[in-house]
Amino acid sequence: MTCDIVLVRHAESVPPAPGQPDDPERPLTAAGVAASELLADELVAMNPTAVVSSPYRRAVETVAPAARRAGLEVATRWELREWDSGLEPTPDYAVHYERSWADPDFARPGAESLRQLTARAIAAVERLAVRHEGGVVLVGSHGTFVSCLVAGFSPGIGWPFSRDMPMPAVHRLRWPSGS
Question: Which PANTHER family did the record assign (predicted)?
Fold first, then answer.
Protein backbone atom coordinates (compact mmCIF):
# COMPACT_ATOMS: atom_id res chain seq x y z
CA MET A 1 0.00 0.00 0.00
CA THR A 2 1.20 3.53 -0.64
CA CYS A 3 0.50 7.04 0.54
CA ASP A 4 0.76 10.17 -1.57
CA ILE A 5 2.66 12.86 0.28
CA VAL A 6 2.14 16.33 -1.15
CA LEU A 7 4.89 18.60 0.18
CA VAL A 8 3.83 22.23 0.22
CA ARG A 9 6.52 24.82 0.81
CA HIS A 10 4.91 27.87 2.40
CA ALA A 11 3.99 30.94 0.38
CA GLU A 12 5.77 34.28 0.71
CA SER A 13 6.05 35.32 4.33
CA VAL A 14 7.04 38.47 6.14
CA PRO A 15 10.87 38.40 6.19
CA PRO A 16 12.65 37.83 9.47
CA ALA A 17 14.19 40.92 11.02
CA PRO A 18 17.95 41.06 11.64
CA GLY A 19 18.80 40.66 15.30
CA GLN A 20 15.71 38.54 15.97
CA PRO A 21 15.22 34.78 15.71
CA ASP A 22 13.34 33.26 12.79
CA ASP A 23 10.02 33.68 14.53
CA PRO A 24 7.55 30.79 14.22
CA GLU A 25 4.78 33.40 14.30
CA ARG A 26 5.78 35.22 11.08
CA PRO A 27 2.67 35.44 8.89
CA LEU A 28 2.28 35.36 5.14
CA THR A 29 2.45 38.62 3.20
CA ALA A 30 -0.66 39.77 1.33
CA ALA A 31 0.83 38.20 -1.81
CA GLY A 32 1.44 34.97 0.14
CA VAL A 33 -2.17 34.87 1.32
CA ALA A 34 -3.40 35.39 -2.25
CA ALA A 35 -1.05 32.68 -3.57
CA SER A 36 -2.31 30.24 -0.90
CA GLU A 37 -5.91 30.89 -1.90
CA LEU A 38 -5.05 30.25 -5.57
CA LEU A 39 -3.07 27.12 -4.70
CA ALA A 40 -5.99 25.68 -2.71
CA ASP A 41 -7.89 24.59 -5.84
CA GLU A 42 -4.86 22.63 -7.11
CA LEU A 43 -4.38 20.98 -3.72
CA VAL A 44 -8.06 20.11 -3.24
CA ALA A 45 -8.09 18.51 -6.72
CA MET A 46 -5.60 15.97 -5.32
CA ASN A 47 -8.36 14.70 -2.97
CA PRO A 48 -6.48 15.03 0.31
CA THR A 49 -7.48 12.78 3.17
CA ALA A 50 -5.38 14.70 5.74
CA VAL A 51 -3.61 18.04 6.09
CA VAL A 52 -0.60 18.17 8.41
CA SER A 53 1.73 21.11 8.84
CA SER A 54 4.73 22.52 10.58
CA PRO A 55 3.40 24.53 13.53
CA TYR A 56 5.01 27.68 12.09
CA ARG A 57 2.30 30.17 11.21
CA ARG A 58 3.44 30.68 7.59
CA ALA A 59 3.23 26.95 6.85
CA VAL A 60 -0.20 26.56 8.46
CA GLU A 61 -1.55 29.64 6.65
CA THR A 62 -0.39 28.21 3.32
CA VAL A 63 -2.31 24.92 3.60
CA ALA A 64 -5.31 26.25 5.59
CA PRO A 65 -7.34 27.38 2.53
CA ALA A 66 -7.07 23.90 0.96
CA ALA A 67 -7.96 22.25 4.26
CA ARG A 68 -11.03 24.46 4.61
CA ARG A 69 -12.23 23.72 1.09
CA ALA A 70 -11.65 19.99 1.58
CA GLY A 71 -13.50 20.02 4.93
CA LEU A 72 -10.38 18.96 6.83
CA GLU A 73 -8.57 20.29 9.89
CA VAL A 74 -4.90 21.27 9.83
CA ALA A 75 -3.01 19.12 12.32
CA THR A 76 0.44 20.37 13.32
CA ARG A 77 3.56 18.33 13.97
CA TRP A 78 6.72 19.81 15.49
CA GLU A 79 8.97 17.50 13.44
CA LEU A 80 7.79 19.23 10.21
CA ARG A 81 9.29 22.56 11.33
CA GLU A 82 11.96 24.52 9.51
CA TRP A 83 15.65 23.71 9.79
CA ASP A 84 17.24 24.81 13.05
CA SER A 85 20.24 26.41 11.35
CA GLY A 86 21.53 28.19 14.44
CA LEU A 87 21.68 31.44 12.44
CA GLU A 88 20.18 34.74 13.42
CA PRO A 89 18.39 36.38 10.48
CA THR A 90 21.02 38.01 8.29
CA PRO A 91 21.04 39.48 4.80
CA ASP A 92 23.96 37.21 3.83
CA TYR A 93 22.21 33.99 4.93
CA ALA A 94 22.84 32.45 1.48
CA VAL A 95 26.60 32.21 2.15
CA HIS A 96 25.89 30.26 5.35
CA TYR A 97 23.28 28.03 3.72
CA GLU A 98 25.59 27.28 0.78
CA ARG A 99 28.32 26.24 3.25
CA SER A 100 25.91 23.89 5.01
CA TRP A 101 24.80 22.34 1.71
CA ALA A 102 28.49 21.83 0.77
CA ASP A 103 29.08 20.00 4.08
CA PRO A 104 25.79 18.38 5.23
CA ASP A 105 27.42 17.27 8.50
CA PHE A 106 28.31 20.84 9.49
CA ALA A 107 26.23 22.19 12.38
CA ARG A 108 26.56 25.40 14.33
CA PRO A 109 26.75 24.98 18.13
CA GLY A 110 23.41 23.74 19.44
CA ALA A 111 21.90 23.62 15.92
CA GLU A 112 20.99 20.91 13.43
CA SER A 113 23.09 19.79 10.46
CA LEU A 114 21.40 19.29 7.10
CA ARG A 115 22.07 15.56 7.44
CA GLN A 116 20.18 15.60 10.75
CA LEU A 117 17.35 17.55 9.13
CA THR A 118 17.20 15.02 6.28
CA ALA A 119 16.90 12.16 8.80
CA ARG A 120 14.21 14.07 10.73
CA ALA A 121 12.27 14.82 7.53
CA ILE A 122 12.38 11.24 6.27
CA ALA A 123 11.30 9.85 9.66
CA ALA A 124 8.47 12.38 10.01
CA VAL A 125 7.07 11.71 6.54
CA GLU A 126 7.44 7.94 6.97
CA ARG A 127 5.30 8.17 10.13
CA LEU A 128 2.68 10.19 8.25
CA ALA A 129 2.66 7.69 5.37
CA VAL A 130 2.15 4.75 7.69
CA ARG A 131 -0.58 6.54 9.64
CA HIS A 132 -2.41 7.64 6.48
CA GLU A 133 -1.78 4.54 4.37
CA GLY A 134 -3.76 4.66 1.12
CA GLY A 135 -4.45 8.39 1.50
CA VAL A 136 -3.23 11.71 0.19
CA VAL A 137 -1.57 13.89 2.82
CA LEU A 138 -0.90 17.59 2.29
CA VAL A 139 2.22 18.48 4.27
CA GLY A 140 2.81 22.18 4.93
CA SER A 141 6.44 22.91 5.60
CA HIS A 142 9.50 24.93 4.62
CA GLY A 143 11.99 25.18 1.80
CA THR A 144 14.98 23.64 3.53
CA PHE A 145 12.86 20.84 5.04
CA VAL A 146 11.37 20.00 1.63
CA SER A 147 14.77 20.24 -0.08
CA CYS A 148 16.44 17.94 2.44
CA LEU A 149 13.62 15.40 2.19
CA VAL A 150 13.85 15.34 -1.62
CA ALA A 151 17.68 15.21 -1.42
CA GLY A 152 17.40 12.14 0.79
CA PHE A 153 16.06 10.24 -2.24
CA SER A 154 17.48 12.13 -5.20
CA PRO A 155 21.25 12.45 -5.40
CA GLY A 156 22.33 15.78 -6.83
CA ILE A 157 19.72 17.86 -5.03
CA GLY A 158 21.53 20.65 -3.25
CA TRP A 159 21.75 24.35 -2.55
CA PRO A 160 20.61 25.52 -6.04
CA PHE A 161 17.40 23.46 -5.74
CA SER A 162 16.70 24.84 -2.27
CA ARG A 163 17.69 28.42 -3.13
CA ASP A 164 15.55 28.54 -6.27
CA MET A 165 12.41 26.85 -4.89
CA PRO A 166 9.44 29.17 -5.38
CA MET A 167 7.04 30.20 -2.63
CA PRO A 168 4.72 28.34 -2.59
CA ALA A 169 6.00 25.14 -4.17
CA VAL A 170 4.39 21.71 -4.43
CA HIS A 171 6.23 18.38 -4.69
CA ARG A 172 4.23 15.15 -4.80
CA LEU A 173 5.83 11.89 -3.62
CA ARG A 174 4.35 8.40 -3.66
CA TRP A 175 5.55 6.94 -0.40
CA PRO A 176 5.76 3.19 0.08
CA SER A 177 4.46 2.54 3.57
CA GLY A 178 5.65 -0.24 5.83
CA SER A 179 9.06 -0.43 4.17
Answer: BROAD-SPECIFICITY PHOSPHATASE YOR283W-RELATED
Separation in Å, CA 48 to CA 40, 59, 174: 11, 17, 13
- Our CA dihedral for 40, 82, 151, 175, rounded to 10 degrees, sits at -50
172 phi/psi in degrees, rounded to 5 = -105, 130
Angle between helical axes of 57-70 and 30-44 (0-180°, round to 10): 40
Contact between residue 114 and residue 148 where contact means Cβ atoms under 8 Å apart? yes
Instruction: Please state, in angstroms and as integers, the Cα–Cα distance from residue 179 to each residue in 1, 3, 75, 82, 147, following that order.
Output: 10, 12, 24, 26, 22
Q: How many CB atoms lie within 10 A of CB 100?
A: 25
Q: What CATH class does 2-176 carry?
A: alpha beta
In three-state secondary structure terms, 147 is helix
The pLDDT tens digits for 126-162 are 999 999 999 999 999 999 999 999 999 888 899 999 9
